[in-house]
Amino acid sequence: xxxxxxxxxxxxxxxxxxxxxxxxxxxxxxxxxxxxxxxxxxxxxxxxxxxxxxxxxxxxxxxxxxxxxxxxxxxxxxxxxxxxxxxxxxxxxxxxxxxxxxxxxxxxxxxxxxxxxxxxxxxxxxxxxxxxxxxxxxxxxxxxxxxxxxxxxxxxxxxxxxxxxxxxxxxxxxxxxxxxxxxxxxxxxxxxxxxxxxxxx
Length: 201
What we know:
By secondary structure, the chain is an all-beta fold. Helix content is about 0%, strand content about 45%.
């Protein structure tokens, strides 16, 4: 995440205030990033950032419920998915990891996403340019309710094709299955790796 905090009482459905901050203002601030309410009033809501001042973030699309003093938020690098996010007619799952060892990571961390509920899903992976980790990503599918899993051929991003500093996406039109994303770190680097799934109902 770029930053986190707690909203002020002056926040509305159109903007979030945090008087404790001193952000670099737009242009060149947080525009086209995403602000997400992670706890409290409005939990689960998120919106593309249109602009910001030192203490106020203005949303590109109004949130359904205004943040308040119970609303914890984070700002993240989800701008590449803004086209889907702007409709707000979505289900999303987000995870940040900072792998300092080789291993396998999953999105979601536990369970899976039932694709039968959605028209399509898009799975995104983002790593900053400064990372030198080796990343291989595979969409896994189950046709027996999540008992057995297999990698879906043609739905992967191998390290040779992985591009740093942009969202690498796997777009999945499959419906009659459960799915989860397998991320295999072959060479570790202690930098944040962001994972996200957007599913359109």
